[in-house]
């Protein structure tokens, strides 16, 4: 959908361009004295005017900010940009709008991409040097646009809230809803100065762990405006998102690495260009609708692969089980037990390459141990295949231990460097995937393991963060890292091109690199290394805010020492995602193994629904110590909901605002061999009252199937029902 017409708010010759699809549109406006800006967002049949800021923001060494600030926004080049042309192209089922602007010798080509029936727009900006001198880039935003209406003397941030998350190893995805007007944005009376403020609320990532602390995903929502924007920066390295308040309104800006945050700068010689990292903004009338749109975008943008729909159940021997100490003696009983309960992939985790007993700083060659497997690794792999399962191996390809023979076999230039020294982090060197020797080594490793053993699954781990980057063969440390980041993606594409049926898990030390540069290519994401099964549900519940439900592999690791409720609690944790199993199955009694087998059977029955579902949160965003937690999926055959009790009262009330006005039948999904929880449905309020069993630690997965109720009220439109929405 693309229309042009004279702008209503400027001169008669100033055009506007309305572009989008059947669900959302953005209106772009410009004139001879102003750059291209987003002036309105169309959603749910309404056009919402927004504060006007330059869409292109480029910081260079010779042209900074006005006024001086540390923002992505308000750059001099951004203000100087002037429209040149626009065009649209269609490729691979997506439409891309290309808008060209210029500021002196700097040309900026905005590329906006949208797919039919997906309410999300992906943006990247290509900047080029048209002159005869150099241009030193310090930041290039991929998206910059207002989200509030223009101020006109009102407090435009009041009523707006942000939903954002932070992570840590073992504590991933801790999300919260926060009003914008408050400690983050106090009233400054900036209108008295004649200048926009200089500060902003920003989150950054500065190394290769793209989700180690701040998350590159978030949501802005206003109930009064009936507008919500969900975003994700799709980059496996450094990034920055920024929310700012101007005198006339609020804006959102998204970018990859910057000079100030990540020591990034790039020198453009004449005729050279640079492309920013992609960033996607999903649009809805509510936070829930915007989150759904981001889910749709993630599905539409994934690399085609049979695993996207197949979702085989994976057993991995690591978590709370072999803990990186596999041997033939330990593995063979586990392989038999995993096959008996219905696992479809068996992955041998860390340690399979180790002869010394201390493998951390010797990794890199990826040759099978000769001491752990007296009959050879092939004997164990053959046992996996004989049970009808796909074999898998743990691999941490991008690192080389400082005591590895490979450390001296590869040239120094094949590693990330600083001032001529190879960077060391936790006794590992880090390969630079720009170098042909590094890439050739990794290609040879993958191809050899597949050819020699028939491996069909790799758990790709990533346990160090080498820091800001490399200054070898780069304009800056951050530039070297960005080029390496992109080389990693290119290497992964090459591996999957050569081995199209290969399934790769994106482990990344729990979920330290859980971004959609990686996950658009890889099958699944282990959501944490959390080994306390009581703490894990908070991570599992929040995971679909960052990744697709069908990619969220939250560990289910029941143990023979657990009682029946504890075992079921563990299994429920993984059930509404990519089912990922561990635990000492071979030591369990028949009843315990039968419960695991039942859970796997249920996961196999649910996986088609999960792969097309949308998540919601019947108890709101999970808090780390909440006694009750719940994750819901709106699926093809009704709602699925997993509910965990970790203490507190025996009663809880879950909200399903999208089911107001419907009669609901509640049926247990798992477990079926333990006492059922009592439930009462209130169609008028869309709430489910649950009474748990007497034990204070328990979990259940339920299905809610609906039919219209004749006597209950019709639910209000989504944009008017925000306080009781699915994301609180």
Strand pairing plus helix content: what structural class? alpha+beta
The largest sheet, given as strand count, sense and whether it forms a barrel, is:
10 strands, antiparallel
Helix content: 10-25%
For the record, give the distance between the C-alpha atoms at the N and C termini, rounded to a whole number.
33 Å
Shape: globular
Low-confidence stretches: 6-12, 711-725
Structural domains: how many: 3
CATH class of the largest domain: Mainly Beta
Strand content: 25-35%
User: Helical segment tally?
Assistant: 13
Report mean pLDDT, rounded to a whole number: 94
Stated plainly, the CATH topology of the largest domain is called Beta-galactosidase, Chain A, domain 5
Count of β-strands: 43
Overall CATH architecture of the largest domain? Distorted Sandwich
| CATH homologous superfamily grouping of the largest domain | alpha-galactosidase from lactobacil brevis
| Rg on CA atoms, Å | 26 Å
Walk me through what this model shows:
This protein is an alpha+beta fold. It folds into three domains: 300 residues, Beta-galactosidase, Chain A, domain 5 (Distorted Sandwich), CATH 2.70.98.60; 271 residues, Aldolase class I (TIM Barrel, Alpha-Beta Barrel); 105 residues, Immunoglobulin-like (Sandwich). The chain has 13 helices and 43 strands. The strands form eight sheets. Strands 7, 8, 9, 10, 12, 13, 15, 16, 20 and 21 form a ten-stranded antiparallel beta sheet that branches. It has a nine-stranded parallel beta sheet with strand order 33-32-31-30-24-23-22-35-34. Strands 6, 11, 14, 17, 18 and 19 form a six-stranded antiparallel beta sheet that branches. A hairpin with a 3-residue loop joins strand 2 and strand 3. Helix 6 runs parallel beside helix 7 and helix 12 runs parallel beside helix 13. The longest helix has 22 residues. The protein starts with a strand and ends in a 20-residue tail after the last strand.
């Amino acid at each position: 959908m693309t229309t042009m017409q004279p702008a209503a708010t400027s001169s008669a010759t100033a055009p506007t361009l309305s572009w989008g699809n059947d669900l959302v549109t953005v209106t772009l406006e410009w004139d001879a004295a102003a750059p291209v800006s987003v002036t309105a967002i169309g959603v749910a049949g309404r056009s919402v005017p927004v504060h006007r800021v330059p869409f292109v923001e480029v910081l260079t060494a010779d042209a900074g900010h006005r006024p001086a600030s540390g923002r992505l926004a308000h750059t001099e080049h951004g203000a100087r940009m002037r429209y040149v042309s626009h065009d649209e192209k269609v490729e691979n089922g997506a439409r891309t709008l290309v808008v060209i602007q210029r500021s002196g010798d700097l040309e900026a080509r905005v590329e906006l991409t949208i797919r039919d029936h997906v309410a999300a727009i992906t943006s990247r900006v290509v900047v080029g040097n048209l002159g005869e001198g150099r241009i030193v880039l310090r930041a290039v935003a991929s998206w910059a646009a207002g989200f509030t209406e223009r101020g006109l003397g009102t407090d435009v941030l009041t009523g707006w809230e942000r939903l954002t998350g932070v992570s840590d190893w073992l504590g991933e995805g801790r999300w919260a809803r926060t009003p914008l007007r408050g400690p983050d944005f106090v009233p400054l009376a900036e209108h008295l100065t004649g200048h926009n403020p200089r500060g902003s609320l920003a989150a950054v990532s500065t190394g290769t762990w793209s989700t180690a602390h701040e998350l590159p995903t978030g949501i802005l929502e206003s109930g009064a405006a009936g507008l919500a924007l969900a975003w994700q920066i799709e980059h496996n390295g450094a990034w920055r998102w920024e929310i700012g308040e101007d005198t006339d309104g609020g804006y959102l800006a998204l970018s990859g690495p910057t000079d100030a945050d990540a020591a990034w700068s790039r020198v453009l010689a004449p005729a050279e260009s640079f492309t920013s990292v992609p960033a996607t903004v999903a649009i809805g009338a509510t936070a829930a609708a915007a989150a759904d749109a981001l889910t749709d975008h993630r599905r539409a943008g994934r690399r085609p692969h049979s695993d996207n729909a197949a979702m085989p159940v994976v057993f991995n021997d690591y978590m709370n089980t072999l803990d990186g100490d596999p041997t033939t003696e330990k593995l063979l009983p586990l392989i038999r037990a995993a096959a008996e309960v219905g696992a479809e992939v068996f992955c041998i985790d860390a340690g399979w390459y180790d002869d010394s007993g201390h493998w951390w700083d010797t990794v890199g060659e990826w040759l099978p141990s000769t001491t752990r497997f007296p009959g050879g690794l092939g004997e164990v792999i053959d046992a996996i295949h004989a049970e009808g399962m796909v074999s898998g191996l743990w691999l941490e390809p991008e690192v080389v231990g400082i005591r590895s023979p490979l450390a001296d076999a590869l040239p120094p230039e094949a590693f990330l460097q600083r001032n001529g020294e190879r960077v060391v982090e936790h006794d590992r060197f880090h390969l630079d995937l720009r170098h042909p020797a590094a890439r050739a080594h990794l290609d040879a490793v993958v191809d050899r393991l597949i050819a020699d053993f028939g491996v069909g699954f790799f758990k790709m781990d990533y346990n160090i963060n080498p820091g800001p980057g490399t200054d070898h063969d780069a304009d800056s440390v951050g530039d070297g890292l960005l080029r390496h980041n992109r080389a990693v993606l290119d290497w992964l594409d090459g591996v999957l091109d050569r081995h199209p049926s290969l399934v790769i898990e994106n482990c990344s030390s729990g979920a330290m690199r859980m971004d959609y540069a990686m996950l658009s290519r890889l099958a699944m994401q282990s959501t944490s290394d959390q080994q306390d099964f009581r703490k894990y549900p908070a991570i599992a519940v929040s995971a679909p805010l960052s990744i697709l439900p069908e990619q969220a592999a939250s560990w289910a690791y029941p143990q023979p020492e657990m009682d029946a409720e504890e075992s079921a609690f563990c299994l429920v944790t993984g059930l509404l995602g990519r089912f990922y199993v561990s635990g000492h199955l071979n030591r369990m009694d028949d009843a315990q193994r039968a419960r695991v087998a039942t859970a796997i059977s249920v996961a196999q029955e649910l996986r088609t629904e999960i792969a097309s579902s949308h998540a919601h949160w019947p108890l709101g965003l999970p808090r780390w110590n909440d006694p009750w937690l719940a994750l819901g999926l709106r699926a093809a055959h009704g709602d699925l909901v997993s509910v965990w009790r970790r203490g507190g009262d025996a009663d809880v009330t879950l909200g399903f605002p999208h089911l107001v006005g419907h009669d609901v039948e509640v049926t247990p999904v798992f477990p079926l061999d333990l006492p059922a929880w009592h439930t009462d449905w209130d169609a008028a309020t869309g709430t489910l009252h649950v009474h748990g069993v007497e034990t204070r630690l328990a979990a259940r997965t339920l299905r809610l199937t609906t039919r219209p109720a004749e006597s209950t009220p019709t639910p209000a439109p989504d944009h008017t029902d925000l306080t009781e929405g699915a994301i609180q």
